[in-house]
Amino acid sequence: MSTAAPSPRALRSDAVAGLSGELRVPGDKSISHRSLMLGALAVGETVVRGLLEGEDVLATAAAMRQLGAEVVREDHAGEAVWRVWGRGIGGLTEPADVLDMGNSGTSARLLMGLLATHPMTSVMTGDASLRRRPMKRVTEPLSRFGAEFWSREGGRLPLAVKGTGEAVPVTYETPVASAQVKSAVLLAGLNAPGETTVIETTATRDHTERMLGHFGASLTVEPHGPTGRRVTLVGQPELRAAPVVVPGDPSSAAFPVVAALITGDSHLILRNVGTNPLRFGLYETLKEMGADIILLNERVEGGEPVADLEIRSTGLTGIDVPADRAASMIDEFPILAVAAACASGTTRMNGLGELRVKESDRLTAMAEGLAACGATVTVEGDDLIVEGTGEPPRGGATIAVNLDHRIAMSFLVLGMVTREPVAVDDASAIDTSFPGFARLMNDLGARIRPLTETAAP
Ligand code: S3P
Q1: Which residue ranges does the record assign to the Enolpyruvate transferase domain (predicted)?
Q2: Tens digit of pLDDT for each residue in 357-377?
Q3: What fold does the segment set 29-245 form as a domain?
């Protein structure tokens, strides 16, 4: 491993015998964003408990304030409670300054939906990662409502949007499986008269639909083809403020779950994890690979299914992950690739084209990072193939994170089992979705520490 003047934000992870204990992961990122946005459009006071206080969601909170909503955080005996006083549908006001969405694609794309059908002009930007990500996938359907967008060549941030006060409702079939695109169109449709319809050939996470129903909107969801859905929203409803309890994020839970599965003698209980079937593809996949994952206390809270997860370490066997499962685990492929590198046999992950346009090009990042750690990995078109030997790879590399939280966390998990430590060059992006990740993992038995610190015996 390189020892040349590492950044103070670089972390290393050393091998451990196992992880044990009980934990709660931070709130669901997708649900947190939506609770602030719908709270800002509802009439009355929306109280949100369990909100993810990661940088991405804080960017949404700041933007909703800039658009005229009142958003406050209170501390109730150590529990954070967020209150949002909404402006009513169509009631957002023109922001005086640029909306900076930081690293968050969800904030940027969903907010563009809201801005598209408010008669005002806004300018949006983001960090270097977000400024590289494609935005035409939302500006194209949002233009159909009557909004106008200006950006540089390629349709990336920064961009300006001139929303329309005379929106026409839209019927739109999404060309990519994307909950962000679906949600942007539905949110724009909130301030368009008549029915807005989104058709998706593969169903994606349905938190927007569930929460719209929870806030009193009238919408119907019907099957479309073998794996798709047709969602129709009646525009200009009166959204009523409603309490939101945010479950733990299954995408964040994935890191301690895989860490426990691959480290020797582990036993974890994760309390209160969201189990929405459209988010649960990783868990289905790990079970097919032989993982010991038990769902306890299955229940429904605030319109979302939730359970406690009990995990014991197990040997994993490689499988083929079908392309039509990708949408239900789109954020989990980096950590699945780590699990696959520690499994016996070949894991083939099919249909991962969308991974190239996430916070970084995750297909390349995982292929190159795992190879640098000694694993055998190939990319064939949009498929990632990892050859497991039944033993963890060697490790001993420093991985470039490129502002991608999930790449950072995935490689820190890998370091928990490799012979040589694994480091990441800049772990600060982890705060976008999982503040306190290293501390929480260390409390369970991991050894993650600044790369600048010398190794403990
Ligand atoms: C999200 C949808 C997914 C996911 C992202 C959150 C959401 O993006 O990758 O982390 O909250 O709607 P796409 O819809 O672009 O696949």
Answers
A1: 17-439
A2: 999 999 999 999 999 999 999
A3: UDP-n-acetylglucosamine1-carboxyvinyl-transferase; Chain (3.65.10)
